[in-house]
Structure formats: structure tokens, C-alpha cells
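Researcher: Next sequence.
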Amino acid sequence: MEMNSDNAIAALGALAQEHRLALFRLLVQAGEDGLAAGAIAAALAIPNSSLSFHLAQLGRAGLIRQERRHRSLIYRADYGAMNALVSYLMENCCAGAGCGGDSACVPAPDQVKEMA
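Model: Next structure:
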């Protein structure tokens, strides 16, 4: 997924809800094997009708993928989309100078003063 401001807004909007954020984090934790809808509903104690709505929202935002496996629908996080979103959010980190290779973005002391 190519990340631009429209895609980032859609992804962040989809994640800006308690159940969807928990659902997405659960799928990230599940890894490439993903989880069946029933397992997700049980793990999060969400009724199936609500779960369907939340899964659809995350799917429209491009954050999850579904696959039919026999009689079950398996859901998994789209790691490419997740990484693209994080990269998009951090692309101007440290004034575009990079952060020394670690994933933490720590602005230079003079930037902190400017933000105050």
C-alpha cells in the first residue's frame, strides 16, 4: 500500500476506536497465521455483529486482509500497510536527518526549545 495523507488518515481513523485498536493489535500478535473470526470474537469478547463491522472498517483502511480457509475466514494484519503508516508518520523525524538507526525519534535539544 502506498502511504499518502489520505491513506494515513483512513488508517488512523480506523484505529481510533477501542475495539478496532485491540483487534488490530491482536492480529499483529497472531502473526502470519492470522486468526479466525470466532477466535477473535472470543479473545476480545465482541459480539459477531459488532466484530464484522470492526473488521470491515479495518479492511477498508487497508490494515487487515482476509482469506477463506475451508469454511472459516482468516484475518491477518497487513504488515506492509502497518510499516508504511509508521514510516509515513516518522519520515520527517529529527528534521529529516535520521535518528541514528534506532526506532526512537528524539528531537535535537534546539528543536525541543522551538516547540515550547
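Model: The chain has a mean pLDDT of 87. Residues 18-30 form the longest helix (13 residues).
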